[in-house]
Design brief:
The chain has five helices and five strands. The chain is of the alpha+beta class. The chain has a single domain, classed as Arc Repressor Mutant, subunit A, CATH 1.10.10.10. The strands form two sheets. Strands 3-5-4 form a three-stranded antiparallel β-sheet. The two termini are 22 Å apart.
């Protein structure tokens, strides 16, 4: 480790800092939506970006998560306006479907652009 600006900098730290600076800062800064930066929430948005609608059960099985975990993450995305949730009954059983909203698609695109820029910058 080398010393830099009053704290230790690990090998390659300067290159990493340059790469992060070139894409707008560190995680949590511009471009990195902390709401999306979660395995389950990113998975939900990604799945819905390529499917018009998906049921609760389809998403749960695809993401290999529990009912409760999916429910909590989907509710956070819905509260942010990224998801729309439609509830109905099929054969007297509750049926929940999700779809991506326009603002959800825009947020996902911005997040992916940021990640692509970060990857490109670190490979330079």
């Amino acid at each position: 480790m080398a010393e830099g600006k009053g704290h230790a900098v690990r090998a390659g730290g300067r290159a990493e800092a340059r790469a992060l600076k070139s894409v707008g800062g560190f995680a949590g800064a511009q471009g990195m939506d902390p709401l999306i930066h979660s395995r389950v929430r990113l998975g939900i948005l990604s799945a819905l970006a390529i499917s018009d609608r998906m049921s609760f059960n389809e998403l749960r099985d695809l993401l290999r998560t529990t009912d409760g975990n999916l429910s909590v993450h989907a509710r956070k995305l819905e509260s942010a306006g990224y998801l729309a949730c439609d509830k109905s009954f099929r054969d007297r059983l509750p049926h929940t479907e999700y779809r991506l909203t326009a603002s959800g698609r825009k947020a996902l695109e911005k997040y992916l652009d940021h990640m692509e820029a970060l990857i490109a910058a670190t490979r330079e």
